[in-house]
């Protein structure tokens, strides 16, 4: 019996085309639907056009609306899996948001394209077929939200966009893909050990993300003291160290009850409280700054927006970010 798969279009390059001026622009809402005859070889597919947005237009609020739309679709009808088409620029953030919040117990796959639909070598149709095959495969159960690109399967919690234009842009530093898609099978070789779920009411948190650079001027951050922010994420140097000049401003934010999450600006590894000098990780942790367990900056921001609806206690947040 054919598996029932819901395909939800949100836009992106997979739903765009190149015009005569070589500009890439959104097509009509049927851009993804034209692949339906190919998809039906692998599953009973229902297409749903949720949005048709370039992914730089995506926001956490829209991510949450997407979550609600999917959950509502499951209240009306059962599906064996879900595929979401999405622009690549913010795909990893949407995928991770859904991984943390979506309460649907079937395989969820997010995919897209690096080449628009009428470019030579367009990768969208193949990625979409691979995603439907992955969502329909029983082995995809209980592995969290998946990202499928270029015949590879990545975990949403690990994957990131690594190249501006290459079709193999999505990679998982440190971890690699958790599976591959061959001509006749979907094959897994590992999966994330930790799964998290957060029940949320909204995704309206105001959480900026800043990146540490040599010689930072504290005035670059002091404006945050006048902003109604709910939290802050900092991409620190190396193991988790910061320029000493910005520490007083961070202390003021902490004193106001603003949680600050620290990640590394390095592609591999995680922050640790090792260096015991001014601005070093050990002193930052003693201040109350929260150390994240290997997330990149954009995902730590998504997690903080979500986690703040469970707790604002710094110690509890530290436990959540250590997972």
TrEMBL record:
<feature type="active site">
    <location>
        <position position="88"/>
    </location>
</feature>
<feature type="domain" description="Asparaginase/glutaminase C-terminal">
    <location>
        <begin position="206"/>
        <end position="321"/>
    </location>
</feature>
<dbReference type="InterPro" id="IPR037152">
    <property type="entry name" value="L-asparaginase_N_sf"/>
</dbReference>
<feature type="binding site">
    <location>
        <begin position="88"/>
        <end position="89"/>
    </location>
    <ligand>
        <name>substrate</name>
    </ligand>
</feature>
<protein>
    <recommendedName>
        <fullName>asparaginase</fullName>
        <ecNumber>3.5.1.1</ecNumber>
    </recommendedName>
</protein>
<dbReference type="InterPro" id="IPR004550">
    <property type="entry name" value="AsnASE_II"/>
</dbReference>
<feature type="domain" description="L-asparaginase N-terminal">
    <location>
        <begin position="4"/>
        <end position="192"/>
    </location>
</feature>
<feature type="active site" description="O-isoaspartyl threonine intermediate">
    <location>
        <position position="13"/>
    </location>
</feature>
<dbReference type="InterPro" id="IPR027473">
    <property type="entry name" value="L-asparaginase_C"/>
</dbReference>
<dbReference type="InterPro" id="IPR006034">
    <property type="entry name" value="Asparaginase/glutaminase-like"/>
</dbReference>
<dbReference type="InterPro" id="IPR036152">
    <property type="entry name" value="Asp/glu_Ase-like_sf"/>
</dbReference>
<dbReference type="GO" id="GO:0004067">
    <property type="term" value="F:asparaginase activity"/>
</dbReference>
<feature type="active site">
    <location>
        <position position="13"/>
    </location>
</feature>
<dbReference type="InterPro" id="IPR027474">
    <property type="entry name" value="L-asparaginase_N"/>
</dbReference>
<comment type="similarity">
    <text>Belongs to the asparaginase 1 family.</text>
</comment>
<dbReference type="Pfam" id="PF00710">
    <property type="entry name" value="Asparaginase"/>
</dbReference>
<dbReference type="Pfam" id="PF17763">
    <property type="entry name" value="Asparaginase_C"/>
</dbReference>
<dbReference type="InterPro" id="IPR020827">
    <property type="entry name" value="Asparaginase/glutaminase_AS1"/>
</dbReference>
<dbReference type="InterPro" id="IPR027475">
    <property type="entry name" value="Asparaginase/glutaminase_AS2"/>
</dbReference>
<dbReference type="GO" id="GO:0006528">
    <property type="term" value="P:asparagine metabolic process"/>
</dbReference>
<feature type="binding site">
    <location>
        <position position="55"/>
    </location>
    <ligand>
        <name>substrate</name>
    </ligand>
</feature>
<dbReference type="InterPro" id="IPR040919">
    <property type="entry name" value="Asparaginase_C"/>
</dbReference>
<keyword id="KW-0378">Hydrolase</keyword>
